[in-house]
Q: What sequence folds into this?
């Protein structure tokens, strides 16, 4: 009966047989080669590293190199009986032990008994213990003395994928070699050689995908290669891999993320549904999206190495790269990495995925803390300049007003003016000729000393003419009534000096009261100022509230004002009787007082935003509320 030759998987067929055949482990190969050539052979070795990177194969190569009948040689011949037996795994002097299956102390005791016998036909008896970290603590302790002082013909080679589980007492007795993951480019080269050996055509994009999926493990890459080759029918292409394994290609991902970059939520969710309807698992789709975003981030950072991207950088959407910056792509990648962790405990993984896609659709509006700081730093100089300009304009206005008042001969205590002293008994003309022509001292025998006058809440000097005090005349722009407007007789005798202090002096004593004539009701502004001046003497808070009102109107028997604050309206309504009483005294007849509330929002439309507020609003693309 004719038997077919047994099929040999690629990982076994392409197992390295020499140190030169090791891929990605140049340091280990060179160190062992020099050790063999110099005859400096250690009694125990510890190989550690990820799975499928060549630890067990290196142990077999080392055993062949030491036992080759033409050696010891760094390059075993592979033809002698010792090399063939070791390659086939049938050598009596090279014993491979699975540490995961032989974990007890009894298995180690058996090894201790066997090492007493010399090798059967080879130069060295080699013990290869794979996954040595699986041995129990008692087994490690039983092995300590043996590996510290073994017979000269015994060599131990330990291999493990979890070096941290090996006791330090074992590590200190061994020469340690750390195996690394194989670079993707070298994995792709080995896959291309494997495809050429069996006569299969393979696209570079497909081989890059297999190499990336193997994550640096040669054995994993060969296993996946065999699986892909089985359904590729002699030609391995990325399109076949995508269709058979349920992958989402870069073209579909470009469409999906293109909709997200444009903010088209409806189209993005529909494209997601289409991908899921085609049988792609959610976990696989999340992985593909994460790889896609990682590639975008690398391209955005200037990295276009095909081995890292898995394909040419030109295949990725230029629209998506232009729509999102590096910070936004980092944010998108973090969303999908978190999504992969969340779907394990989610009520519905699909809901989680749809939520992530919906978030990506407004990712263009995402602003990081760094961008906010940069915007604030950019706006700060403009705000400083605006504040300085406003301060300069304000100072210029104050100086202009002060100059105007001084030119008119008015000494304003608020603006820093001073009143020169006048000799007692001097006539009013003398005071006028001294530079204070706008100040009348009728009714005062002695001029007030040059001291600051009490100030009203609106910034004007205290006015006490209506309560019988001295008659202080103001500049024309202050809006305060002078003595003539209030109807005081021009030929009135000035009162005698009784030693009473002026209202502008430090004593603060009020002068004797005098009868005042009613205010001219034809000018509502004068009525307002006279009322505020009268109330400021006895009720400064009420006078301050009246200062904030506007649109004063008189209908003959009622004075109506407007306020924009509800609290001030309530305050004025509670004092309406007192205000009406003062108004009646000013008008000389019974007058009522009323206050209306005008909402502040209605006034906002007519107000223009300051320049610094507009700069902040435009910089951060916001809106102003409550101004």
A:
């Amino acid at each position: 009966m004719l038997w077919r030759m047994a099929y040999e998987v690629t990982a076994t067929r392409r197992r390295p047989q020499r140190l030169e055949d090791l891929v990605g482990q140049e340091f280990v190969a060179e160190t062992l080669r020099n050790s063999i050539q110099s005859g400096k052979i250690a009694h125990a070795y510890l190989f550690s590293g990820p799975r499928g990177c060549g630890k067990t194969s290196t142990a077999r190569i080392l055993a062949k190199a030491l036992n080759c009948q033409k050696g010891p040689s760094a390059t075993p011949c592979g033809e002698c009986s010792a090399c063939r037996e070791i390659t086939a795994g049938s050598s009596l002097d090279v014993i491979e032990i699975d540490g995961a299956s032989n974990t007890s102390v009894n298995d180690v005791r058996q090894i201790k008994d066997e090492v007493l016998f010399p090798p059967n036909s080879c130069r060295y008896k080699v013990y290869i213990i794979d996954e040595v970290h699986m041995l129990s603590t008692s087994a490690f302790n039983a092995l300590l003395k043996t590996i510290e002082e073994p017979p000269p013909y015994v060599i131990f080679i330990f291999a493990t994928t979890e070096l941290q589980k090996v006791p330090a007492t074992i590590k200190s007795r061994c020469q340690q070699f750390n195996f690394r993951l194989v670079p993707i480019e070298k994995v792709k080269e080995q896959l291309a050689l494997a495809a050429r050996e069996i006569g299969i055509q393979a696209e570079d994009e497909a081989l890059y995908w297999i190499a990336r999926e193997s994550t640096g493990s040669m054995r994993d890459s060969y296993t996946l290669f065999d699986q892909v080759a089985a359904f590729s029918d002699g030609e391995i292409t990325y399109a076949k891999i995508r269709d058979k394994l349920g992958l989402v290609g870069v073209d579909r991902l470009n469409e999906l993320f293109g909709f997200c970059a444009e903010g088209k939520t409806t189209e993005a969710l529909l494209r997601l549904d289409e991908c899921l309807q085609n049988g792609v698992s959610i976990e696989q789709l999340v992985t593909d999206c994460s790889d896609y975003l990682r590639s975008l981030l690398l391209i955005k950072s200037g990295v276009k190495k095909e081995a890292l991207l898995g394909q040419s950088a030109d295949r990725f959407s230029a629209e998506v790269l232009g729509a999102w910056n590096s910070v936004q792509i980092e944010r998108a990648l973090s969303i999908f990495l978190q999504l992969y962790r969340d779907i394990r405990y989610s009520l519905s993984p699909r809901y989680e995925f749809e939520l992530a896609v919906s978030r990506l659709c407004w990712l263009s509006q995402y602003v990081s803390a760094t961008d906010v700081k940069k915007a604030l730093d950019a706006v700060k100089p403009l705000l400083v300049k605006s504040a300085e300009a406003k301060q300069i304009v304000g100072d210029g206005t104050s100086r202009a007003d002060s100059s105007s008042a001084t030119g008119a001969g008015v000494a304003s205590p608020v603006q820093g003016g001073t009143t020169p002293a006048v000799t007692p008994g001097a006539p009013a003309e003398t005071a006028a000729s001294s530079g204070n022509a706008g100040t009348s001292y009728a009714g005062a025998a002695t001029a007030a000393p040059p001291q600051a006058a009490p100030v009203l809440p609106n910034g004007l000097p205290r006015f006490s003419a209506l309560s019988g005090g001295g008659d202080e005349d103001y500049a024309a722009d202050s809006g305060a009534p002078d003595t003539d407007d209030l109807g005081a007789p021009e030929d009135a005798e000035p009162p005698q000096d009784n030693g009473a202090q002026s209202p502008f002096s430090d004593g603060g004593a009020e002068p004797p009261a005098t009868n005042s004539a009613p205010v001219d009701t034809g000018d509502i502004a004068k009525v307002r100022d006279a009322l505020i001046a009268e109330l400021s003497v006895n009720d400064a808070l009420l006078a301050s509230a009246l200062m904030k009102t506007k649109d004063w109107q008189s209908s003959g028997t009622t004075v109506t004002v407007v306020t924009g604050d509800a609290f001030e309206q309530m305050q004025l309504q509670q004092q309406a009787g007192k205000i009406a009483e003062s108004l009646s005294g000013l008008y000389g007849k019974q007058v009522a007082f009323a206050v209306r509330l005008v909402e502040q929002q209605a006034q906002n439309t007519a107000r223009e935003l300051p320049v610094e507020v507009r700069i902040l609003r435009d910089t951060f693309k916001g809106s102003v509320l409550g101004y």
The CA atoms of residues 503 and 624 lie 47 Å apart.
